[in-house]
Amino acid sequence: MSASTAALSGTNFRRIDIDQYDEDRVDPSSLYHPDPRGPAQALAGAQEKDRTVRGLLQRGDVGSALKEVLREGEWPYGEDSVPETKQAKATALATVLSILNSTRSTDIPTLVQQLDPSEQVTLMKYLYKAMENLGDTSGNVVLGWHEKLTEVAGIGCIVRVMSDRRRV
């Protein structure tokens, strides 16, 4: 047995991360600009938005609640490795799901048509995130919203969600 074979026999060569030696390695954080707010500010903003949306839902103003939660630049994004960012994302998703669950299926097309294209893309991001971890949410609710949103926004909305590096 040679010296190099003896050295490799003690390690599992299939578990070695060879990408760490690549000079052209792409780091996920370099693919998009980080959230200009800090993680704590993003969490506080998500909690404040949740309180605002709950107030709007109690008054029955679902359209304003949906526009409030999808407002551009205010939803948290970034690495999930930071606990505050992860919690802010979970709070924002729970807020969106509360709107989706409290909307009658006959009102969905009207609400979706009132959204501008950037809000439609953000809503589609949240729908895919909700499909990823359904939890207490019914899959029928999420799929119903997805169907109506795709009818209004088209397939391009799905393509924009899949190609955007910023995840909600």
TrEMBL record:
<dbReference type="Pfam" id="PF04699">
    <property type="entry name" value="P16-Arc"/>
</dbReference>
<keyword id="KW-0963">Cytoplasm</keyword>
<dbReference type="GO" id="GO:0030833">
    <property type="term" value="P:regulation of actin filament polymerization"/>
</dbReference>
<dbReference type="GO" id="GO:0044396">
    <property type="term" value="P:actin cortical patch organization"/>
</dbReference>
<dbReference type="InterPro" id="IPR036743">
    <property type="entry name" value="ARPC5_sf"/>
</dbReference>
<feature type="region of interest" description="Disordered">
    <location>
        <begin position="17"/>
        <end position="48"/>
    </location>
</feature>
<comment type="similarity">
    <text>Belongs to the ARPC5 family.</text>
</comment>
<dbReference type="GO" id="GO:0005885">
    <property type="term" value="C:Arp2/3 protein complex"/>
</dbReference>
<comment type="function">
    <text>Functions as component of the Arp2/3 complex which is involved in regulation of actin polymerization and together with an activating nucleation-promoting factor (NPF) mediates the formation of branched actin networks. Arp2/3 complex plays a critical role in the control of cell morphogenesis via the modulation of cell polarity development.</text>
</comment>
<protein>
    <recommendedName>
        <fullName>Actin-related protein 2/3 complex subunit 5</fullName>
    </recommendedName>
</protein>
<comment type="function">
    <text>Functions as a component of the Arp2/3 complex which is involved in regulation of actin polymerization and together with an activating nucleation-promoting factor (NPF) mediates the formation of branched actin networks.</text>
</comment>
<keyword id="KW-0206">Cytoskeleton</keyword>
<dbReference type="InterPro" id="IPR006789">
    <property type="entry name" value="ARPC5"/>
</dbReference>
<dbReference type="GO" id="GO:0034314">
    <property type="term" value="P:Arp2/3 complex-mediated actin nucleation"/>
</dbReference>
